[in-house]
Design a protein that fits this description.
With 350 residues, the protein is an alpha+beta fold. It is 50% helix and 8% strand. The protein contains twelve helices and four strands. Bound molecules: flavin mononucleotide. Flavin mononucleotide (FMN) binds next to strand 3.
Length: 350
């Protein structure tokens, strides 16, 4: 900050003054300054890098709930997937099963709840895996030892049939018209009534959106709900797309992603992808329950991001992806037509 001000004083301002009377030189100098401004913003990637380095590396010593539950999901999802494949004549998933048992052991040692759905999902996956492979009698001594280890892990784990895996796929025929209407009627609303949003309805919408897909089912999305008008105003002050309607909001969401759920930089884009999928489901879900919404971009300078974390009580390891305005649309609310492109401009059939 200081260096920038200094450079402006000793370099930029004197050149500004010197070129003022020479239009061609001034134009070139202004062009150079514009370019410089864009390049300086690449600095934000360095800030991203720091965040990723701090939060997106799974450390073997980290036994926090967030880390272990993400690792458990990541590992046992391999078993779940294998159990759904039609080719069942090979002994699949030995390494994954061992990895799951290793994390289960650490989970127990760390004292995390054994009723937690992620944990129970892992246990039931191990149970199904054992159930599928044991009757195959495949000639694999190493595989046998894995099954015996699973016996030990499962010894005092109660059956939870409601979380047993896998389950039959149910095709959702006859929903396309309703879905098309939902997609077409969902629009970004920028005129809200003062009627507050019912907390139960909001939670229902979020619960529906939780059915969104995510990498290895990690579900790293986190939703922060704000109801206090002053706090909402302070958060909105940091965002540049709510002019003219932000003051009407009695509910604001911040959609964030827990970066700790991602094992390393290979997954650097995944949090944005999963957050996008979740947010899409959420706005459709809100619409289906009679509520209105508007996504609000989080294209901000790092300093604003830091302030929003502080203002919103959002842990540093959670990456803010976007804000979301939620409410009841004002009577007679208007929305832009926002036509969509012709299909041929979007689709390339190869
Ligand atoms: C990630 C994202 C950020 C957005 N940010 C803003 C915003 O800051 N302010 C705003 O008024 N609309 C915002 N929008 C809404 C878009 O303008 C809107 O989705 C688009 O114009 C299409 O219109 P529709 O949502 O009504 O179909 C955002 C949308 C997305 C997906």
């Amino acid at each position: 900050m200081f260096a920038g001000a200094f450079l402006r004083k000793v370099l930029v301002h004197p050149i500004d003054t010197a070129v003022r009377r020479f239009p061609a030189a001034r134009e070139r100098w202004d062009g150079f300054k514009r370019k410089l401004k864009h390049y300086r913003k690449l600095e934000y990637f360095r800030w991203d890098l720091g965040k990723s380095r701090r939060h997106m590396v799974w450390r073997a010593t980290d036994d926090s709930y967030v880390k272990l539950s993400a690792e458990l999901l990541y590992q046992y999802h391999k078993l779940e997937k294998g159990l759904c494949l039609t080719d069942s004549t090979r002994f699949f998933g030995k390494d994954a099963a061992r990895a799951v048992m290793h994390v289960v052991t650490r989970w127990r040692q760390a004292g995390h709840p054994r009723t937690d759905r992620v944990y129970v999902g892992a246990i039931e996956s191990l149970r199904s895996y054992r159930g599928k492979l044991r009757p195959l009698h495949l000639p694999d001594a190493d595989g046998d030892s894995v099954l015996l280890d699973i016996d030990v892990i499962l010894v005092d784990e109660p059956l939870r049939p409601e979380l047993a895996t896998p389950v039959p796929f149910r095709p959702s025929a006859d929903t396309s018209d309703a879905f098309e209407r939902l997609c077409q009627e969902r629009r970004s609303v920028r005129a809200y009534s003062p009627t507050p949003v019912d907390q139960g309805l909001l939670e229902r919408a979020i619960g529906i959106a939780q059915w969104s897909p995510s990498v290895c089912n990690r579900q790293a999305w986190r939703v922060h709900i704000y109801r206090d008008r002053d706090q909402i105003a302070r958060l909105l002050h940091l965002q540049n797309g709510n002019g003219g309607f932000g003051h009407q909001l009695s509910t604001l969401l911040v959609i964030a992603m827990d970066s700790t759920a991602f094992f390393d930089a290979t997954e650097r884009n995944q949090q944005f992808i999963d957050a996008g999928l979740f947010s899409m489901s959420l706005i459709l879900s809100l619409q289906s329950l009679g509520l209105a919404s508007c996504c609000l971009n989080w294209s901000v300078i790092p300093a604003h991001d830091v302030r929003a974390h502080r203002e919103g009580g959002i842990p540093e390891n959670q990456r803010i992806i976007m804000y979301m305005a939620v409410g009841h649309a004002a009577d007679g609310a208007l929305v832009p037509r926002s036509p969509r492109r012709e299909l041929q401009n979007v689709v390339t059939t190869h």
